[in-house]
């Protein structure tokens, strides 16, 4: 068999296996790269070269940047804005806002960057509003494809067609000139998705959807009876407690108040200094009138973080949080005494309450003087401390954490610690991409590196943040594009098509090029497809005596119509897992969108850029 025949056979088998959907997609992708080498179509360096491709590096780095936005609460904040703007009931408003946001972001940083940044936001929205993620994620990706035609920076294909126009002597395209077709593409895409998306998309979620922790703090404070009567008071310079040890705080004249903890003002962790200083906090529990009288008498100010007495906001905020732990059988803590207000051995967590069989232990048995509570297997404790302390200390095998503090913080604490740095990193990356100062892979690596160096994420967390299935899948499938070019299969297909439609007029030429570009774009990258089709389209236009500008713009639109398969673009693959999509789910919504792109490319483009 010839190399072209081998390549065609491999493509056919790959498509069948993807549609069959019984083998893991990573296995199919790796088998594809191996088959291209085994048949002699590609060398070993070419068959495995996709893993070193800059696009793959860029995608991997974007997962780290996206996780940095997620872990600092930026995505939770963006999700709250979208929910607030769309309302919890309006599917239409939610889709319009989501698709508009991703389209505008795509115009600045490309499809891959925009989808990677907003993917966790949309997943959080799906969880919070109890909607199926499959109903939201493909609309996110497909509207990003349309948004890639709003500006020159929206896609590498835009740069290719602009350069090709200049090289042909007909001039390139302006930065926002693409919006002349981008706006109709986006409007039509949004209309089709809003009108038909609900019926054409599956009603399912990904296999590993996160839990909804948006109301986690409220649930905990209600369960442990801390909804009201919890106060955080800040030490003023005139307070008599300044310069005194924490043990000197006496509440004998205020029997309705109980001291929970003394916290350092800078860190909100339990006080470790020998004496109290201005700005430190007292955490009290008890009667509201007694708390107000105590604050006035001792020159204390109620914390600005929350309304006085609101346990949810006082205990759970940007600085500190709550965690519920269970004492498992054979735990080393069984038989030990604890009491509310007790500081753990690590010195940075506070025991707020203890429950046994779902009921709070009687207050008379829960004090230091009464000997505290003797822990038993199955008891639950509510702990409070800084987010950092919760993350680090709850890895102890003597306790089982009910919900990971890291996951809770991501959803429930918008714009938490490090959020400003994460936003600044994103803005810097966008500027690098929009101005072209650095290649996308370099911009992504720089941004990911700063995320780690700034302490937003550790190296281990950054490893876990990367969706390795997507990275391996993209890297293993890229050699298929190389094989199409190297064997001449792609060029042979293109030349035959042009010879068939070239004499039928310019409209027929646009239609033929669209069909070719769109079909190839479902199997290989749209950038590789454009590189193959652009020179053929320019040559055909010159032969027919027409301007290549509408041909080039039509090709750019066709290259963006990568809707029918998950392997058409990296972003289509990105949402396959979180959306729970099967191979056949893409074409159902993708086909009507492709028809709209065909109308724009073949009939609207010549009205804007004449032949």
UniProtKB/TrEMBL annotation:
InterPro entries in UniProt: Cit_transptr-like_dom, DASS-Related_Transporters, RCK_C, RCK_C_sf
Residue intervals passing through the bilayer: 5-20, 56-79, 99-127, 134-152, 172-196, 423-453, 465-485, 497-517, 523-544, 551-569, 589-609
Domain RCK C-terminal: 218-300, 310-399
Taxonomic lineage from the root: Bacteria, Pseudomonadati, Pseudomonadota, Alphaproteobacteria, Hyphomicrobiales
Membrane topology, as annotated: Multi-pass membrane protein
Protein name in the entry: Di/tricarboxylate transporter
UniProt-annotated location(s): Membrane
Record keywords, A-Z: Membrane, Repeat, Transmembrane, Transmembrane helix, Transport
Pfam family membership, one: CitMHS
